[in-house]
Amino acid sequence: MIVYGPSNTDAHLQQIMALQKANLPKNISVQEAREQGFVTVDHDMEALSDMNTPYRHSIALEDGNLAGYALVMETRFRHRIPILFPMFELLDGIPWRGKPLKEWRYYVMGQVCVAKPFRGKGVFQGLYLNMRDRLSGHFDLVVTEISTRNSRSIRAHEKVGFENIHEFTDPDGEHWVIVAWGWD
Question: Which domains does the chain have, with CATH numbers?
Answer without folding.
Answer: 2-182 (3.40.630.30)
